[in-house]
Amino acid sequence: MKVLLTGGAGYIGYGLVRQLMFAPEISEIIIYDNLSRRNYAFFDHQKFIEKPLRFVHGDILDGRTLQQTLQGVDVIFHLAAKVTTPFADTDAHSFDQINHWGTAQVAYAAEQTDVQHLIYVSSAAVYGDTDTAVNEDAIPDPHSYYGIAKLAGEEQVLRLQNKMKVQVIRSGNVYGYNPAYRIDAVMNRFIFEAHFQGRVSVQGSGEQQRSFLHVDKLATALRQLLNSPLPSGTYNLAEHNFSINDILLSLKILYPDLETILINPNMPRRNISLQVPARLWSQLFIPDISLLDEFQAFQAVFAFRSK
User: Fold this and answer.
1) Could you write out the three-class secondary structure of the chain?
2) How high is the pLDDT of residue 263?
3) How much is the pTM?
C-alpha cells in the first residue's frame, strides 16, 4: 500500500509518519508539502528508515504536480491547511484559497487517479460557537474564516464517496510535543511560556471552552483508519473538553508560581466543545495517558529552564 500525506512535513504529519513507518501494510510513504511553515524538523530530528520515504516539494494548489505525484497512490491523508490560531478571523482569502480550493484540487486529483481511500483532517471549528457539547448530528455553523473554509473542504472530498472510501475527521485542538510542534497551538504556547517565562498570557476571561486531542493520539487514530471497517462518513475526534482556566490549573501543578495575565478579559467568549468520548473513540485503540503525564513529557524535552 502506497500512501501520500499532504502537509506531511508538518506537526500532525510528523507524528503520523512516525507510526506509519511500523505499519506492515505500507510499502511507501510520500510527503507532499510546500514547507510554508518554515519548520524543517521533519528532515533532521529522527531517522525514518523503516520504509521507503519520498519528499515532493509541492503545493496543493498545483493540481498538475499533485496529480502526477498521486500516480500509484492508494491512500491520501490530507493534512495540508492554513492554521493560524488564534487569528482565524483575518485574511479570509488565504483560508478559502488553501483550505477550500486547495482541498478541491486534492479531491480532483484523487478522482483522476486510482486512489482508494481519502482521509481528510478537518476541525471542530466547523460547528462554530456551541453552548453544549455537540456530536456529528449537530448542524455545522462556522463563525471563523478557518472554520468556513474547512467545512467547504469537507464538501469537496465527500462528493467522492461513490468512487472511494472518504473519511472526514473533525479534530479538536491538537497539542503535545513532537519535533515539528506548533508553538501557536494554545496548550503548547502555555507550557512554553510557563517553562521559560514563568507566566502565561490569556486572551479573554479564560472561561472559554475547547475540545483537545494530543497529537500522538490523533496520529494513532489516523493510522488505524487504514485497516478499520468504518465506512465513509464524518467523525468527530477529541479526548478532552477544557476551559483555558482548567488548563492553567494543570500547568500550576508543574509550575506552582505560574503567573497569569488576562488580555481583554471582557471580550466575548467562544465555546467549541465536542461530545466525549466521540463515537469514533470507541472504535479505535488509543492509549490512555493523562493530561498531566502529557505535560510532563513535554516539559522533559526542554533544553533548560529559566529562573
Assistant:
1) CEEEEECCCCHHHHHHHHHHCCCCCCCEEEEEECCCCCCCHHHCCCCCCCCCEEEEECCCCCHHHHHHHCCCCCEEEECCCCCCCCCCCCCHHHHHHHHHHHHHHHHHHHHCCCCCEEEEEEEHHHHCCCCCCECCCCCCCCCCHHHHHHHHHHHHHHCCCCCCEEEEEEECEEECCCCCCCCCCHHHHHHHHHHHHCEEEEECCCCCEEEEEEHHHHHHHHHHCCCCCCCCEEEEECCEEEEHHHHHHHHHHHCCCCEEEEECCCCCCCCECECCCCHHHHHCCCCCCCHHHHHHHHHHHCCCCCC
2) 87
3) 0.95
Could you read off the pLDDT of 118-129 as tens digits, one per residue?
Answer: 999 999 999 999
Measured between alpha carbons, how far is 259 from 201 in angstroms, rounded to an integer? Answer: 9
Question: What residue type is assigned to position 188 of the chain?
Answer: N
pLDDT digits (tens, 9 = 90+) for 285-302: 999 999 999 999 999 999
Domains and CATH numbers, the chain: 2-175+213-238 (3.40.50.720), 186-210+241-274+290-298 (3.90.25.10)
Average pLDDT of the chain to the nearest whole number: 94
Backbone angles phi, psi at 255, to 5 degrees: -130, 80
Question: For residue 175, is pLDDT > 60?
Answer: yes
Q: What percent of the chain has pLDDT over 70?
A: 97
Q: Which residue has the cell 514563568?
A: 198
Rounded to whole angstroms, the Cα distance separating 104 from 123 reads 17
Residue 209 predicted with pLDDT over 80: yes
Residue 227 CB-density burial (10 A; 0-12 exposed, 13-18 middle, 19+ buried): exposed
Any residues with CB less than 8 A from the CB of 44 and at least 6 apart, and which? Answer: none
Using 50, 70 and 90 to split pLDDT, how confident is the model at 307? low
